[in-house]
Each structure stands twice: as C-alpha cells, then as structure tokens.
Amino acid sequence: MTVVNIHEAKTHLSRLVARVARGESFVIAKAGKPLARVIPINAKDSPEDRLGFMKGETRVPKDFDEMGRDEIASRFGTAK
User: Are 6 and 16 in contact (CB under 8 A)?
Assistant: First the structure.
C-alpha cells in the first residue's frame, strides 16, 4: 500500500482522490508514522462491512465463565 506524507497528500490531493476512485487505497503518515488509511467508499474491508462479519459462525459455551477456573485459581494461589 502506498504511504504518503501529509505535505504530499495536501499537494497532490486531486491525484490521490482520483487513484482512490479507481479502487486504490493509501496511507497518510506524519514523520513516517501512519495516521490514516484512505480507501474507496465501497471497499470490501471498510469498517462498516466488517462489523458482525462472523455472526452465526461462533458459539460461546454455556460454561464459558467457569472454563479453567481451577487452573487460574491455582496459579494465583486462591485455590480452595
């Protein structure tokens, strides 16, 4: 993925937006540290598309809150 600094992004915003419109994405960085990812509005990996993407794929056991209770207690010295 292309990384551009803030100054470059401001200078070439029109070009960068055109690239995003063609389906590309890029990261805006400041002093080499990534700050933001710019993706096409209809990108498959946008947060709105990912929310709940595993719905119905997993199951939480009824005894989830008790799993490993004895081992955890023994490791912390609180075993009965």
Answer: no
pTM of the entire structure?
0.53
Q: Where are the domains of the chain?
A: 1-43
- Could you write out the DSSP letters of every residue in the chain? -EEEEHHHHHHTHHHHHHHHHTT--EEEEETTEEEEEE--TT-TTSHHHHTTTTTTT----TTGGGTTHHHHHHHTT---
Find out whether 21 and 41 touch, Cβ atoms under 8 Å. no
- Kindly report, residue by residue over 34-58, the tens digit of the pLDDT: 999 999 988 776 555 667 778 888 8
What topology is assigned to 1-43 in CATH? YefM-like fold (3.40.1620)
Residue type, 17: V
